[in-house]
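Predict structure. Input: LolC/E family lipoprotein releasing system, transmembrane protein, 430 residues.
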Amino acid sequence: MSELGHRASPFGKLERTLAWRYLRAKREHGGASLISIISFVGIFFAVAALIITMSVMSGFRATLLDALLGGQPHVYGVVSSYTEDEANALAAKIREIDGITSVTPYIEEYVLITANGRKTGAAVRAIRNEDLATMPFLKDGGKAAVDAGFGVGRNGGDVIMLGAFLAAGREGLGVRPGDKVEIITSQQTAGPMGGTPRSKSYIVGDIFKTGSVELDSLYAFMPMEQAQILFQSKGHYSMLDIRLKDPEKTHEAMAAIANATGNALYTFDWKSQRESYLNALRVERTMVRLLVMVIMAIATLNIIVGVVMLVKNKSRDIAILRTIGLGQGGVLRVFLLVGTVLGTLGALLGVLVGVLVVLNIHYVESFINLFVQGEVFDAETYGLEGLPAILDWNEVIRTGLYALFMSMGVSLIPAWWASRQDPVSALRFE
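Output follows.
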């Protein structure tokens, strides 16, 4: 065997040098064709698109769940049939269960709220002042509302809190802290002319944001004592708001609650209420990933055409290398390296751009807003305050490896064809 054959170790310096020279050669010298460049650009865009898309979807899911789980219980306990003391006793037992962070009683009723000539439906949630700290979205445990008089005075006073979009959204009441609103309930007050709906005026003490437009357009908070009078629920609560360290472990928590209370409490969790949300997000995430992976596969298929054209341009070089001792395996590895490098460079650039876009998503959104009227992702339309994105490094690594293996796989076809060429026939035609 010639000296070249001895020096041509698998993926050694010789093969790497040949592959790199073919990639760098100008088109007129038989180098990488325009199709190879197109395949590189296609892989770059596909990788970047997959990383950005999956990161935005992860951010959307996390933001949605954070908003929902910040503004609503993880586990609901129905206590409407118990007295206030009995409900408090059940809450005390539940607080002792490992993994449960808080248990707070509340009353919730649907009402009509009016102000400034506007009317809208809302859900009034009654809460005790000592439980305000369990609401993670209230700044400083609701200090601004308490300072304004929330829960202070006779029967809890007449100060309430409103969700941001209920107070000032497009379909809201157009009120600010200090303004008055009237709450009309479905309960009736008997009179000489028959029953009339119960109603009372309240002062807006503070405006809160849970992060969910749905909840911020619906909820109003009221002191417990005042709500018990307004809704004729003196001495009773409606529900227990049970919060967990891990909101995903609701089934384990409900089993522990049933055991601790002797099945005296009917419970259900947030998943049962939001099952359609979770299923839609899961299906959408899977389908988007498959769609972009198919697009990436199509982009890598262009490598076949690019490397085939390179092989045709370099048929004379292949024949000479074969006659001086480079084996079929060496030729295969040279052109396999060419296709793999094209895919790897495209994948690396796609990963870099995708990660940078995700890490600076708010700046990207602001830049896009410069060229459109209004906002691309309006909060009241999409239920999100800004475009969310969470970078999942496992997703980034999987995307990069998928592009790498696809590039290597499709490069095998033209590389194998190059290695099977007959050097004698190639030199004869040259």
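The chain has a mean pLDDT of 81.
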